C-alpha cells in the first residue's frame, strides 16, 4: 500500500549477526555516547543563586505602583477585583484626609488591599482593567511558604518602595 | 610473634579499614556526581563546597532514621544479614599488596596485612561469602520480594563464580603462584624482555571475563538483578531501614572498591608503573613506595569510575539472559581461554 504521509518505514527483523550478538561492541559504542555526555556542559540553572531570565511579557508577582511624586496610584475603584477571574483580589477603600495628600494621589485610596497568591492565576486581567495604571504583574516568582495565610499578600508586600529612600 | 609486628599490623589494618570506608563513603558521592555528569546535570552541590559533605549528611540521615524490624521477620538473622554483608566486604582487603616494602625510620614494613600463599583463593572465599549476607537478609525479612532478590543473588553469584574461577586459572597458569605479592612483583615496571609485564597484556580475554564476573559479583548494573527495583521493589533489602540498609548499600561500595583493587592487582600491575625504578631511586625508600601506593589508588579509582560509567550506560539484563551469558558464553569462553593459554605457554617457550 502507498504511504500517504511518506513517513512509513519498513522494519526488517533480521537475526543478529555475530558482532551484534557478542554484545561487547554495542556496550563500547554505548560507553562512547555516555562518555561524550560526561564532558558536556550541564544545562542546570542553580536556581536560588542563578535565575533564568524572564521573557519581557512574563507575569509574576503584582506590585502596586506609585506616581512620580511617590504617591500611591490606586484609587480603590475595585475594577481589578471585578475583572479577576479567580477572585483573588479584595480591598477596603478609605477617604483621603487633608494631611495625606502626599501619600495618595486620588481622594479615595485602598486602606486594605489583599491578593491571595494561591488563587491568583497570573492572567494579567487586573493589570488590563486598572484605569490608573496602579497594578502591574512585573515582579518575581511568588516564593513558597508554609502556611496558607502567608500567601495572602497585603499592602506591605505589594506596594512599591517609596521613591526617595 | 613480636609485639612490634603485632602493633605494626594493627596500625596497617586500621589504616586500610579506614581508607576502604572513606573510599566507599566517597564512592556514594562520586556515583551521584558521575551519574549527574553523564546525564548533563550538576549532582549534589548543597552540603559543603561542591557537595563534598554529602556522604556525611547521608550517613547522619541513615543513623537518624527509624529502625523497623518487621514483626514476622526472624529477629537474629535479620540483624546478622547486613553485618555479614559488610564484614565479608571489609576482610577482602587483607591480602591485597598496597605497595612495595617501605622504609620508616630503620624498619622495613610490608604494605600488606598478610602475604598468604593462597591469596587468590582467600579472596575467592571471602567474595563468595558475601552472598550469605544478602541471602540471610532476604530470607529473614519474611517478604516475597526480599526472598526473590535473595534467590537471584545466590544463583547469580554461584553462576558467575565459576566463570570467574575459570578465568583466573588461565592467569595462574602464567604466574605459577597464588600469592598476590608475587603476582604483583612479577608485573614489575611496565616493559621487560620485549613484552609488557602487566598481566592484562598476557590475558586480555581473561581480564574481560574476570571484569564481567566482577560486575556480577558486586551486584552492579547490568547485573543488579537482586535489587531490581522495577520488579522487586527493593530486592533483598526491601524490609531494611536505617543503618542496616546503610550497611547493605555500603557493602556494595566496599565490594566495588575491593574488586577494583583485585583487578588492578591481578591484571594491571598493582602498584607497578612505567619507569618505577628510576622514580624509586629518586624518591628514596619511603616516598618511592608511597608513590606506588598512589599509583595503585589511581588505578582503583579509574576502575571504580568505570564501574559507574557502565552503570549509567547500559540497562539491566533480563534474568534468563543473565543465566545464558553466565553458563553458555562466559564459562565456555573461560575454558577456551585456559586451553589457549596452555597451548601458547607450552609451544612458545
Note the main attributes of this structure:
A: 165 residues; alpha+beta; Alpha-Beta Plaits; 5 helices; B: 349 residues; mainly alpha; two-stranded antiparallel sheet; 11 helices
What does this structure look like?
The complex is a heterodimer of chains A (165) and B (349). With 165 residues, chain A is of the alpha+beta class. Chain A has a domain of 96 residues: Alpha-Beta Plaits. Chain A has five helices and five strands. Chain A is elongated, with a radius of gyration of 29 Å. In chain B, the strands form two sheets. Chain B has a two-stranded antiparallel ribbon with strand order 1-2. Chain B has a two-stranded antiparallel sheet with strand order 3-4. In chain B, helix 2 crosses helix 9 and helix 5 runs parallel beside helix 11. The interface between A and B is medium-sized, with 16 and 16 residues.
CATH hierarchy class name of the domain at 63-158 in chain A = Alpha Beta
Q: List the strand order in the largest sheet of chain B.
A: 1-2
> Largest sheet of chain B at a glance?
2 strands, antiparallel
Which regions of chain B contain 5 or more consecutive residues with pLDDT less than 50? none
* Multimeric organization: heterodimer
Element pattern of chain B in H and E: HHHEEHHHEEHHHHH
Task: Detail the topology: elements first, then pairings.
The complex is a heterodimer of chains A (165) and B (349).
Chain A lengths: L17 H5 L1 H15 L24 E2 L14 H5 L5 E7 L12 E9 L8 H5 L5 E2 L15 E2 L1 H4 L7
Antiparallel strand pairs in A: 1-4, 2-3, 3-5
Chain B lengths: L2 H36 L15 H11 L10 H17 L7 E6 L2 E5 L7 H22 L3 H32 L4 H7 L4 E2 L2 E2 L7 H14 L11 H4 L9 H26 L8 H36 L7 H29 L2
Antiparallel strand pairs in B: 1-2, 3-4
Amino acid at each position: 500500500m502507498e504511504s500517504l504521509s511518506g513517513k512509513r518505514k519498513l522494519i526488517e527483523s533480521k537475526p543478529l549477526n555475530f558482532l551484534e550478538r557478542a554484545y561487547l561492541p554495542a556496550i563500547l559504542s554505548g560507553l562512547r555516547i555516555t562518555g561524550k555526555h560526561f564532558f558536556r556542559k550541564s544545562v542546570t540553572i542553580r536556581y536560588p543563586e542563578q535565575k533564568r531570565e524572564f521573557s519581557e511579557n512574563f507575569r509574576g508577582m503584582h506590585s502596586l505602583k506609585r506616581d512620580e511624586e511617590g504617591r500611591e496610584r490606586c484609587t480603590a475603584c475595585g475594577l481589578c477585583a471585578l475583572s479577576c477571574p479567580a477572585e483573588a483580589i479584595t480591598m477596603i477603600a478609605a477617604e483621603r484626609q487633608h494631611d495625606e495628600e502626599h501619600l495618595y494621589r486620588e481622594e479615595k485610596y485602598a486602606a486594605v488591599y489583599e491578593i491571595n497568591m494561591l488563587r491568583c492565576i497570573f492572567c494579567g486581567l487586573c493589570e488590563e482593567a486598572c484605569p490608573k495604571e496602579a497594578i502591574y504583574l512585573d515582579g518575581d516568582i511568588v516564593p513558597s511558604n508554609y502556611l496558607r495565610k502567608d500567601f495572602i499578600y497585603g499592602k506591605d508586600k505589594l506596594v512599591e518602595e517609596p521613591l526617595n529612600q | 610473634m613480636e609485639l612490634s609486628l603485632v602493633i605494626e599490623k594493627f596500625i596497617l589494618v586500621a589504616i586500610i579499614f579506614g581508607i576502604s570506608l572513606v573510599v566507599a563513603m566517597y564512592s556514594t558521592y562520586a556515583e551521584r556526581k558521575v551519574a549527574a555528569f553523564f546525564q548533563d546535570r550538576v549532582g549534589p552541590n548543597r552540603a559543603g563546597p561542591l557537595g563534598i559533605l554529602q556522604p556525611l549528611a547521608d550517613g547522619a540521615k541513615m543513623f537518624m532514621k527509624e529502625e523497623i524490624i518487621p514483626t514476622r521477620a526472624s529477629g537474629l538473622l535479620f540483624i546478622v544479614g547486613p553485618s555479614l554483608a559488610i564484614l565479608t566486604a571489609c576482610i577482602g582487603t587483607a591480602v591485597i599488596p598496597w605497595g612495595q616494602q617501605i622504609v620508616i625510620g630503620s624498619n622495613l614494613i610490608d604494605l600488606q596485612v598478610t602475604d598468604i600463599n593462597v591469596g587468590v583463593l582467600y579472596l575467592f572465599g571471602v567474595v563468595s561469602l558475601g552472598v550469605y549476607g544478602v541471602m540471610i537478609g532476604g530470607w529473614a525479612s519474611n517478604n516475597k520480594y526480599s526472598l526473590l532478590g535473595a534467590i537471584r543473588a545466590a544463583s547469580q553469584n554461584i553462576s558467575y563464580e565459576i566463570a570467574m574461577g575459570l578465568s583466573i586459572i588461565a592467569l595462574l597458569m602464567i604466574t605459577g603462584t597464588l600469592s598476590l605479592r608475587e603476582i604483583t612483583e612479577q608485573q614489575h615496571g611496565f616493559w621487560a624482555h620485549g613484552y609488557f609485564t602487566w598481566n592484562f597484556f598476557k590475558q586480555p580475554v581473561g581480564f574481560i571475563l574476570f571484569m564481567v564476573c566482577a560486575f556480577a559479583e558486586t551486584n552492579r548494573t547490568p547485573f543488579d538483578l537482586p535489587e531490581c527495583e522495577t520488579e522487586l521493589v527493593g530486592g533483598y533489602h526491601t524490609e531494611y531501614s536505617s543503618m542496616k540498609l546503610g550497611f547493605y548499600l555500603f557493602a556494595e561500595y566496599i565490594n566495588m572498591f575491593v574488586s577494583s583493587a583485585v583487578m588492578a592487582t591481578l591484571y594491571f600491575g598493582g602498584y607497578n608503573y612505567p619507569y618505577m625504578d628510576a622514580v624509586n631511586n629518586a624518591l628514596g625508600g619511603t616516598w618511592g613506595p608511597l608513590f606506588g601506593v598512589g599509583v595503585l589508588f589511581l588505578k582503583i579509582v579509574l576502575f571504580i569510575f568505570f564501574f559507574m560509567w557502565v552503570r549509567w550506560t547500559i540497562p539491566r539484563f533480563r534474568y534468563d539472559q543473565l543465566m545464558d551469558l553466565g553458563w553458555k558464553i562466559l564459562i565456555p569462553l573461560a575454558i577456551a581461554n585456559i586451553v589457549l593459554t596452555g597451548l601458547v605457554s607450552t609451544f612458545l617457550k
